[in-house]
Amino acid sequence: PSLVNCCTIDWFTPWPRDALLSVASKLLGKIDLGEDGALAKVSNVCMVIHSSVREASERFLVEMRRTNYTTPTSYLELINLYTGMLGEERTINNAKVERYQNGMDKLKSTNVMVGELKVEIIKMQPKLAQAGVDAAELIEVVTKDKEAAAVVQANVEEEAKKVTAITEEASVIKLDAQKDLDEALPAFDSALKALKSLNKNDITEIKSFAKPPPMVMFTLEGVCILKGVKPTWDDAKKLMGESTFLADLETFDKDNIKEKTIKQLKKYIDDPGFTPELVEKVSKAAKSLCMWVRAMDVYARVAKNVEPKKAKLAEAERTVSEMSALLAEKTAQLNQVLARVKELEEKLLNTIKERDDLQLQSDLSTARLGRAEQLTNGLASEQVRWDAELIQLNQDKIDLTGNILMASGVVAYTGAFTSNFRSDLIKIWVAECQANGIPVDAAFSLERIIGDAPTIRGWNIQGLPADPLSTENGIIVTKGRRWPLMIDPQMQANKWIKNSEEQNGLRLIKLSDGKYLQTLEACVRNGNPLLLEDVQEDLDPALEPILMKQLFKQGGRLLIRLGENDVDYDENFRFYITTKLPNPHYLPDVCIKATIINFMITLDGLEDQLLGDVVRKERPDLEVAKDKLVVSMANDKKQLGELQDKVLKLLKDAEGMVLDNEPLINTLQQSKVTSTMINKRVAEAEETNASIATAREGYRKAATRGSLLYFVIADLSNMDPMYQYSLEYFKLMFNSCIDASDKSDDLEARLQILMAYVTKFLYLNVCRGLFERHKLVFSFLITSSILRNSSEIKALEWNFLLRGGLSLAPPKNPDPAVMAQPIWEACAAIQEALPEQFGGFTDHIRDHLKEWKVWSSADSPHLMAMPAPYNNSLNSFHKMCALKLFREEKLVFATEMYVAEKMGKEFTESPPIVLAEVFPDSKTTSPIIFVLTAGSDPTGSLIKFAEEMGFLQKFQSISLGQGQGPVAEKLIAQSTKKGEWVCLMNCHLCTSWMPALEKIVENFTTQGVDDENFRLWLTSQPSTFFPVAVLQGGIKLTNEPPRGMRANLIGTFTNLGAVEWDCQTGRDGRDELYWKKLLVGLAFFHATVQERRKYGPLGWNIRYEFNTSDILCAKDVLKMFCRKFDDMPWSALTYITGHVNYGGRVTDDQDRRCLMSILETYYKGDIVVKDEKYKFSESGIYYTPAVGSYEALMDYFDKLPGVDNPEVFGMHDNANITFQLQETKSMYEIILGLQPRVGGAVAEGERSPEEVVDDLAAVFEESMPPLFDHEQAAPQMFVPTENGAYLSLDTVLLQEMDRFNRLIAAMRDTLRELRKAIKGLVVMSSDLEAMFTAFQNNLVPGLWTKVAYPCLKPLASWIKDFHRRITFFHNWCMVGQPSSFWLPGFYYPQGFMTGALQTHARRYQVPIDTLNFQYIVKAMEGDEDVSDPPEDGMYISGLFLEAARWDRRGKKIKPSNAGEMMSLMPIIHFNCVAMLSTVNPEDYQAPLYKTNLRAGVLNTTGQSTNYVLDVGLPTDEQPRFWVLMATALCTMTND
To answer: Is the pTM of this model over 0.70?
Structure first.
């Protein structure tokens, strides 16, 4: 409440459908789903996948008792996985399609080309012949024309030589003239450039001089001379004033300068100051004019020398021209001739080329044809395979969206499930995809869709089992986005991971390692794979960054924070986690961080492994050959795949005409040769493998037997946490059996020998580690597993034996007095459930009722023949089913007989544990573990054995407890070096040190032990904290206290010893007499209170753990009383022993009364006074022997019966029936608890469990009564009294009606919801799943018992009882108060009793606390015999008397009739009287209980909630007689 008051409660419920759809739509909207409208469809399927997994997880918990959680994180993981995987697989698929399509296209085009080439070659042959004839004729014509052309060509060449000589002479003249010109032209060109650089402004600048500078004037005078004007300033200015001045200078006729002008210029040219550089200093424009003047001078002088040369050149060129014209004429004639020759030659060349082309084309076509045939023939088989593969790939391309969605769901969600749950989920998902129009492979296989065959074969070689579940697990490990957490109790995944990652530098750690974080950090940094082994249900928070992949980038580096350090993250890092826990409960916070994968071995997987072990031992040649074949076939198939990829790649990369690519064809041919060889080798290997497999199959029976036995042994851990056996240990024993069993050349005989030996050897080895109560369970599980596997026991038969049945409409009982109604209904149920064996069963019983009564009433019906014809028509198992109906308590004996019949008597006997026989099986590395029960102590026998082995001086022991762990660790370390034995006692008391013990034992194997004589002995009571690894690797021995009075007495006095027996010798033998007599009595008392526990509620309402400390304390008290008192104070001795020493444990008043009544038998004066005449029981077998020696006492105990008769406890012989029934129920409840909680596959014609339960629920729902409404009650009911209150009994009725209304509403609602869930209309919650299972098992659902009255009846009887209760209260409400009250119908009988007293008190105006009941048993048997109610009090009906019967003649209680456990009492008058007059001391105050379970929760008054009150019943016996008999009244039976 304080939490509720101080906190705001926020309920996190599963995401609704709308939320799931919304999230999927948003996240999937970012990717290409292939078609319009696919987003809504895929989102809907994602929602269904998540919802179906949630439902499957609830069913998984109910049926398999295994937990699996789905969270929103799981849903996001599904979507993220899908988005990533879809893109990857689409790319891979497209690449494959492209490769195969390209290959197919090339092959198809080649096939077409072959036909075309053949036609083309045929057409080419005539053309090729004609081309040869035409070429020969042309060669002859061309030869003649070439000879004529040669003569003309010689003449032309002679003339050409002459022209060439004259031309060369003209060239020399021209070069000489050009040389002179080259001297003047640069200066001229420079002057022109300078002139062009001048503009009008430059000339204006010169003209602007009023009196030009001397050098400017000097320059202008030179210009004037060249231009033919006076060299004066005025004329110069006029000249410059002309608009074309500069242009005229540029176009000046330099070739015709007169000689006179040149002479006039001489004085200017020769003047040293008339240089461009000097003139420039005065005027830039004048510089250009200066350059022009000097250039004209140079050119004029050069031109004078060049002119003659020009004339000579002109003459030479004229001569060349004339001769060239003549040469051209002759050359033209030659060209005509040569052109004709050339034309003919070209024609010849074309003809030859055409001929060669035809030949080349013919050769090419022939070569292509050859290569095409090579290609098509070589790849013919590939073409067929590629075509099929291409069809599949194209279909996969269509189905890609759905297939990858399925694969993502499998990887993200199904790892924790077993194979059948995975199959069911995939069927649901595929159907949902089809319903939504999403293309998907109807026969979806994870292995085919995203698996890689060569990789999977490699996994198998590396140790991964080859069964489909393991293959799926391997794919989930490698494809999942989260790191895998593998449930691996048999170490299959561990072995596979170690082998597959060894080459990558795998490192191993455990959370118990001190430096595991350092190893983790190193692996993350270096990219090594890491395997974390043996985790428990909680993971170290330090691993969270790794599990959540909390990576970040900093400065271009990929980092992860581990602890306080940022570590470089290598993307090659891989992280694997394994646990040995067979059924771990990982909470959601772990489920969202890791992919949980169930690697528990399957029946088929183990069978294959064991088959290998058998064949390896029996036919090593076969197994060696098989192992080699597996490797070679894997390598060959891998190589074939690589060759195929190579061929496809070559075809894809080939450019142009494939048939012209000779290197490609040769490579393909070589690949074909290689692949042919490999294919041949693979075919031969497969043929050999098939023959090996056939030979190996002959040994499968033995492997099947071994596999069945292992799974029976593996299930034992569900009975007790100490029953742990590893697969490695099992296979070690299995292989040793193969070696040790007798050999035979006859295979069938050898298999029978081997199976028998393995079964017996494993039974004996496992049995020594089982408690007695579980040994028959184990042997029956072995028997039934073998026979169910061989179909000798059918599923329906097995189900009926364990769960019983229910008949909705049984026929009428012929005689309820002879055949009890529950038995009759059970007979009808078996008739319906097993019609083949029990057809007409009820009719036969009706017709032969007397025979069935005789058989069912016999002391040992399991030993008697059943009434014909069933004795012969039914097999032993069917007879067990029938025995369950009539005498269920005898089923335990029938089970033992059945095991003996099918397996042999040795499977019903467990040999005694002899340490000398067990010790040779022990090793230094394997501890020997004593599994204890309360009161057992193997220390004495262990010390005795150590003495026999000569190790008493080397035997060290320590009792574990707080702070003893380090001491034990030190002791072990010393003893391993010295070769001593160490015994660690009471390991269950030191739970915190158990992980350290596990590490120590592990080090024995990894690091070795110095001395081979060392042995570790452990003792522990069953504890879930005891290390599983130690249990699996150790030898387990159970140590239980002795069972039975004789064994208990011997054990007590063995512990006390002779010294304690003879310790009292004073007062002339008086002390010895009292001491020994009473000590024996005390020992009997101690044995009695312990052994009564086996009778369940008849022995004690509550089971008390009386142990050795109780008798030791009581013994010391007795010793003190014997010494100190002359007259024994019996009352004080009895009080201290009963109420203090033993009574301190007792919490129930009725049990305390029983305890004191038992003690009264053994602590009284008669035991001393009467000596041997005083007997403890009527048989006279049990008494205190005469005072004598210790040996004489032990001899007396040895002669006592080994099997206790109930009379020694003061109980009726019927108590044995209770004991046997309790043993039977306990045994079959254990077996039922090991079964899956739903039926298996349904055979044709049978109804499924869902149909059966739905029909049952429909019948129940239809029979549901309406709610009670007190407004509709009879007029006299619920009438207020004067003070406004209802009558007391009316109030009681209102309260009861209210309680029943709650129950009716709950039943109606749950039945409706269950039927909807079965039809799939609502989610099958865990509560509804439990209700479904309860209906199957004929049990009342927990949803009903929460609001129902206490009742131990099975479902069928419970429903009838429910309707009877409803009818009773309905009649009371609608008719009025009944004349007698059916007390079993009340929820709260105590309230009704109070209401009855209150009614009397109000009627007579007396205080209610002064009233009590007086009980008068009437002659009336039932309600129908009661006509009127009593004047005072009330009549009560429906009570049953247990462990006694009512004598209707003597009107007293008497001992029960044989076989009658409960008898119906007549009507009892509960009369209200004054309290002082109620109790008759001679009457037996029989406690009245609601159910015969008797135990209940203690309420505030100190009474059990199951207890109602004491009813005084008259008797001829002392009340303590009935107390010891455990006689009590109950409101109902259990059937």
So the answer is: yes
